[in-house]
Amino acid sequence: MTPSVEEAGLALADPTAYADDDRLHAALAVLRREAPVHRVEAPGYNPFWAVTRHADIMEIERDHRLFLNAPRPLLATAEMDELNRQRAEQGIGLRTLVHIDDPDHRVLRAIGADWFRPRAMRALEPRVKELARRYVDRMLELGGECDFVQQVAVHYPLYVILSLLGLPESDFDRMLKLTQELFGNADPDLQRGDSPVEGLEVLLDFFAYFNELTASRRAHPTDDLASAIANARVDGEPLSDLDTASYYVLIATAGHDTTSSTISGGLRALIEHPDQLDRLRADRDLMPSAVEEMIRWVTPVKEFMRTAAEDCEVGGVPIRAGEALLLSYPSANRDEDVFDDPFRFDVGRDPNKHLAFGFGVHYCLGAALARMEARAFFEELIPRLTSIELAGEPENVATTFVGGPKYLPIRYKLTPA
């Protein structure tokens, strides 16, 4: 049954909608067609404008002076919006690159930028390929059946990004649990609890860990990204504890959770579209475009918010200064005006102007690394894969921010390396 415009708008504030691809995309199609800039007044949330067309989202992303990340960078309940405001005043709220605007954004982004440039990626590539082989070998050790998300996909990019940071392997499981609690705070299987207080505890646990790390790297500098963050200076002064901890949280969480969603969602797409798997097997040169299509198909980051700095228009709709806009990336990445047959999974899709990494000054810092990780994994897996099928019902994470598959039971046959 096709939802009304009002029902479609409310889906954007419902974490369970993101766990149901059919329901979500039915709602987004209605909004793109009938109300591409639509005011949503969902119970328990402050009002916002849902922006669902690719062109309108691009317009907003291009103008970072008119459309600000602060003070409401992510969709949250009205209660959480107020708590986040109070935390910011108390100096205990996150201040990641997602949360801030220029000039602070430009200065802080530069601290980590060199670690994700092409030269750094070339240096990291052997380690990424080694880890890709390790986790495909892990699939072989599991005997031909596993939950791909929980036993493979969440661990591989975690090892990559935490190795780049320079964290000890003994802490990796702790970082995984904290990340899942942070991004899965709306999912009963992943959340620490359903109260704002328990959500704050997760953040404080992150801060406690990373404050210790900062002290260690300042006392004993090393050649890893954690040390670069800890010892960075702005106008001759070291970063505050809040800014260093926020930087670590961004790298350690977004740096693996989104990639694991792409890899697991990409594998599910290949299983459900066996003709595309066969096509990729027959032509490995399609791997770069196949990875881009997986990223578009999954779109791990579901939304960011922007706040209008002054009165303006988006898509012909008047927006007042101070009003918030939700940028729906899954919708942009299925926009019929941009993508030919957008609901077809096509490993050879070209061009592929997806917005899964955002656009403009807030373009994802780790986009090149995410692409390299996904490509390395499937370049290792595909030649060794002789058969694969679902071994149960997949489930997606309930979220309004970052997510993808939560469980992906599969049955397969692999050849040794």
UniProtKB/TrEMBL annotation:
<comment type="similarity">
    <text>Belongs to the cytochrome P450 family.</text>
</comment>
<keyword id="KW-0349">Heme</keyword>
<keyword id="KW-0560">Oxidoreductase</keyword>
<keyword id="KW-0503">Monooxygenase</keyword>
<dbReference type="InterPro" id="IPR002397">
    <property type="entry name" value="Cyt_P450_B"/>
</dbReference>
<protein>
    <submittedName>
        <fullName>Cytochrome P450</fullName>
    </submittedName>
</protein>
<dbReference type="Pfam" id="PF00067">
    <property type="entry name" value="p450"/>
</dbReference>
<keyword id="KW-0408">Iron</keyword>
<dbReference type="InterPro" id="IPR001128">
    <property type="entry name" value="Cyt_P450"/>
</dbReference>
<dbReference type="InterPro" id="IPR036396">
    <property type="entry name" value="Cyt_P450_sf"/>
</dbReference>
<keyword id="KW-0479">Metal-binding</keyword>
<dbReference type="InterPro" id="IPR017972">
    <property type="entry name" value="Cyt_P450_CS"/>
</dbReference>
